[in-house]
């Protein structure tokens, strides 16, 4: 899976999607598009570095939002892998982290498929567009559901503490970016 993500990031870089992550003010297009997202400030912050590539393309905006979500998922996966090796974990914490790792991996797979499928949407029209777009929307929505269920294993008072707080923060970050990506995918679908 990590090789697929590395390949995807190289692809995005070659085709100009992944630019240097310097903070730039959001373009008016990004700002107005992000107004419909669940987390507009995060949307603007995460997509503004790619304004030159996005320009005024709703397709490129959706692609970039998905790529940003995928990249954050990969970082979260790496974090969880390191955390799982921590010697001071309770058995239940280790198990919950393992469950989250599985969920994040599934989520990454769905977002990766969505990125590839979104490319197909740009080449077709009519019913074929609707079919491909339905796949994208279903997969991104499923990825979001996965991310939101990840922290279920940390329920109850026995799991309170820094590990739970840390994992929840990581997963919330991914879920917020994925939620924004879904909103931008839906916006692209409406305007196509």
UniProtKB/TrEMBL annotation:
Q: Which residues form the Pectinesterase inhibitor domain?
A: 25-184
Give the GO molecular function terms: pectinesterase inhibitor activity
N-terminal signal peptide: 1-20
* PANTHER family linked to this entry: PECTINESTERASE INHIBITOR 7, PECTINESTERASE INHIBITOR-LIKE
InterPro entries reported in the protein's UniProt record: Invertase/methylesterase_inhib, Pectinesterase_inhib_dom, PME_Inhibitor
Q: Which residues cross the membrane?
A: none
Q: What is this protein called?
A: Pectinesterase inhibitor domain-containing protein
Q: Please name the SMART domains in this protein's record.
A: PMEI
Sorted alphabetically, which keywords does the UniProt record give?
Signal
Instruction: Name its species.
Output: Tagetes erecta (African marigold)
Going by the entry's taxonomy, the superkingdom of the source organism is recorded as: Eukaryota
User: In its keyword annotation, does this UniProt entry include Cytoplasm?
Assistant: no
């Amino acid at each position: 899976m990590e090789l697929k993500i590395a390949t995807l990031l190289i692809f995005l870089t070659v085709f100009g999607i992944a630019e240097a992550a310097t903070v730039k003010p959001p373009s008016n297009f990004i700002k107005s598009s992000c107004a419909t997202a669940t987390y507009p400030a995060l949307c603007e912050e995460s997509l503004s570095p790619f304004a030159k590539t996005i320009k005024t393309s709703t397709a490129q905006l959706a692609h970039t939002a998905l790529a940003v979500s995928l990249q954050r998922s990969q970082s979260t996966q790496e974090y969880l892998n390191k955390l799982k090796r921590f010697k001071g974990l309770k058995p239940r914490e280790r198990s919950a982290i393992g469950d989250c790792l599985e969920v994040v991996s599934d989520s990454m797979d769905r977002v990766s498929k969505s990125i590839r499928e979104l490319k197909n949407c740009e080449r077709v029209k009519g019913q074929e567009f609707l079919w491909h777009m339905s796949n994208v929307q279903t997969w991104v929505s499923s990825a979001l559901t996965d991310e939101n269920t990840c922290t279920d294993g940390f329920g109850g008072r026995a799991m309170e503490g820094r590990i739970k707080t840390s994992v929840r923060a990581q997963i919330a970050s991914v879920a917020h970016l994925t939620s924004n990506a879904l909103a931008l995918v839906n916006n692209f679908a409406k305007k196509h």
